[in-house]
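To the wet lab folks,

You asked to see what we're planning to order before we commit. Fair enough. Below is the target structure as tokens, and below that is the sequence we designed to fit it. If anything looks off to you, flag it before the synthesis order goes out.
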């Protein structure tokens, strides 16, 4: 099971005050944009970590398979904004071992979590844990910019 990472946000009073003055659709669009920027920062750090553990002698690259995707299921069920950062292609190699450039890399789990004979070299978990403050700051900054744009746009329409 995945390790939990907890954090708290401090200093959001200004942003929360602005959120009261805009409509729900603007909140969602601005939040999704800001969350994507913050998640992209984490995905980029995960790619950097994966490049350190990738074997250059094989054609398969874990870093090339790291993807950032919108989590529509969570949004539909709860209304919360969510992005997923993970490694594409699933966990099983199908029809032999493909060693082309964009081939599946199911072995990433063995590297990330380790085995009984190999120590873990986490690159996904550390990407989030080491950059949570930067991602949070990016989210707050980008969300505040989006809300400010929406308020200015609403003021122009109101005139």
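Sequence we intend to order:
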């Amino acid at each position: 099971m995945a390790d939990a990472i907890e954090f708290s946000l401090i200093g959001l009073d200004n942003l929360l005050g602005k959120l009261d003055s805009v409509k729900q659709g603007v909140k969602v669009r601005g939040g999704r944009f800001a969350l994507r920027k913050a998640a992209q920062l984490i995905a980029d750090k995960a790619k950097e970590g994966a490049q350190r553990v990738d074997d250059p002698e094989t054609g398969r690259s874990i870093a090339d398979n790291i993807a950032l995707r919108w989590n529509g299921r969570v949004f539909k069920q709860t209304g919360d904004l969510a992005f997923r950062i993970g490694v594409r292609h699933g966990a099983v190699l199908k029809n032999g071992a493909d060693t082309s450039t964009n081939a599946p890399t199911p072995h990433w789990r063995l590297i990330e979590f380790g085995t009984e004979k190999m120590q873990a070299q986490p690159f996904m978990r550390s990407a989030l844990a080491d950059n949570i403050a930067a991602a949070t700051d990016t989210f707050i900054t980008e969300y505040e910019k989006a809300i400010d744009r929406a308020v200015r746009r609403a003021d122009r329409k109101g005139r």
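Structural context that might help your review: Residues 124-158 form the longest helix (35 residues). The chain is about 55% helix and 5% strand.

Thanks,
Computational group
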